[in-house]
Amino acid sequence: MRRHRETPNHPAWLKAAASTAPQLPFYDSADFTPRRPDTESATTEVGRHRIADFQFTNQQGATVRRADLLGKIHAADFFYTSCPGICATLTRNLKRVQDEVAEVTLIFYSVTPDMDSPAVLAAYAAKFGIDSTRWQLTTGDKDATYQPARGSYFADGLKT
Question: CA–CA separation, 145 vs 137, rounded Å?
Answer without folding.
Answer: 12
